[in-house]
Amino acid sequence: EDDSKGSEVLRAMDRMQKAALDTALLDWPMPGVPPKLKALAERVLDMKGCSHIIFCDYTESYPAIMEALHRLAGVPKDRMISVTGSKMTPGQRQEVARRINGEWDPVARKWATPSTLDVVIGGKAIEQGINLQRRNCAIHHPTLTWEPASIAQRNGRGVRQGNWLAAAASDRPGEMAWIQPAAVRIFYYLSRRSFDGYKLTL
Q1: Strand 164-166 to 176-178 pairing
Q2: What is the pTM of this model?
């Protein structure tokens, strides 16, 4: 009986988190863009010319996130990728990293391979074991896990040594500027009357 009650509580919490993200996940679509997705798109729009990592635990919401970013932030659909599944092969991880980071030639001072992605969306699949930091300027959390260690791992995809951004102004065009990991901005999207704030303080 206790297990049954516990399961019911977890299901109720899950429904609340889905509703906080997008009521369409509960087959109850509302008109317009959901507030979290609108706020997310606004922040991506404000920070162009770099890469964004979006951590969301509901894979069924990925198409809606990508559509919001395309419509409201102008991100081309071919510059976004969503990663689903709980596991990735080393080759798959390397390919995603190569596409979003690009490859910089420090001798020639130019991109050997330009990046082909600006946004990567995922959950557990990109939580660890993949280097996404080179062009990263922001990490977004439209949903939050129950495990603080998991959130720390996710933030570590961008907040780590090896962050590079194209210099906005440089004496030598094409030069790369080194930025401190603290320059990476982390956004948590919290809804009123939800468990978002509570989960963030765990």
Answers
A1: antiparallel
A2: 0.86
